[in-house]
Amino acid sequence: MSSTQTAAITAVHGWLPEDKLTNADLEKMVDTNDEWIRTRTGITERRILKDPTKATSDMVAEVIKGLCVQRGIEPATIDLVIVATVTPDMFFPSTAQLACYKSGAVNAWGFDLSAACSGFLFALRTGGQFISTGTHKRVVVVGSDKMSSIVDYTDRTTCVLFGDAGAGVLLEADPTGDNGIRDAILRSDGSGAEHLRMQAGGSLNPASHETVDAKMHFIEQDGKPVFKAAVTSMADVSYEIMERNGLSADDVSWLVPHQANMRIIDATANRMGVGREKVMINIQKYGNTTAATIPLCLWEWAERLTPGENLILSSFGGGFTWGSIWLKWAMEPTPKAQ
Length: 338
Ligand code: UT7
What we know:
Elements: E1 7-15, E2 20-22, H1 23-27, H2 34-41, E3 45-47, H3 56-71, E4 80-84, H4 95-103, E5 109-113, H5 119-132, E6 139-146, H6 156-159, E7 164-173, E8 180-188, E9 196-197, H7 209-213, E10 220-221, H8 223-244, E11 254-257, H9 262-272, H10 283-286, H11 293-301, E12 310-317, E13 321-328
Parallel strand pairs: 4-5, 4-6, 11-12
Antiparallel strand pairs: 1-7, 2-3, 6-7, 8-13, 9-10, 12-13
Helix pairs in contact: 3-4, 8-9
The structure holds oxa(dethia)-CoA (UT7).
Oxa(dethia)-CoA binds next to helix 2, helix 6, helix 8 and strand 12.
């Protein structure tokens, strides 16, 4: 057992439902318009998992299977699966257990991790520790959310924002000891809960006729304070991780930001001094897929990434939770396969 191994991403995969929900579709559902959505958020369309028999674990299972195909390994050789989600199939069993079963990862243990839009970063950090301590060889980290299951499609302030997706990575020890997760700054502040939450269904407000009537099983967001906190915190932490590792804007090959709002992404890139050409942006196609946004970007960009490139992954989300991870990419350019 060595304590010097870095945890590197050795496969990346994403899964998207086929059905699209466009701004034009939303114009027919609520009092909104394409221009408002595009200028305030940057979103044009999102994907929706319409099949009522499918849930988050099905998306995670597809991601696990895709990772294994890409890496040429059997799902049964995976040691651990961590699923970041706020839309688990159910409270228990965990989505990780269901997805392991559905994908054939029969020798893995696993658990769900709840940190909303920062879920993937929290899970990546957690999964990385199992690799760097040498206790586990193959760890899968997936961010997946079926946001359509908790969105109120009569509330124009939230329904235009979110979409469904799953995406994730395989972590293994990097043989060079140089590529992989190099540093992480993760933070949280529970006082932000009142601005972004789903109130019912848990031990505080168990499901009842009253909670259903009061629409407490849907996501609630007071956009302005969340926006303000996001702009400051995500930019600060992204700058901080560069500074404490002596990375200049030129050293940063890519910023991989959570995709909640184009204006938050721009504010973060500006603070870091990183030009738009080095920022991964796909919010226009998928909207905010909560825990899936960051790995979804990695999957889409993997065909142009090369070993040794410096990536800064940054997020802000419900909790509040936020953070930044510096990693050195370890994979050769890899074409995207659905
Ligand atoms: O990923 C998790 C973390 N979440 C975030 O990072 C989201 C952070 N917040 C935001 O991205 C933005 O606050 C929103 C995109 C949610 C909203 O943008 P905003 O510029 O903060 O708008 P606002 O909430 O201040 O609303 C401005 C106006 C309001 O009308 P009045 O009061 O000025 O007459 C809203 O009622 O826009 C109205 N509005 C809409 N109009 C058309 C709100 N939603 C819509 C809509 N279509 N969908």
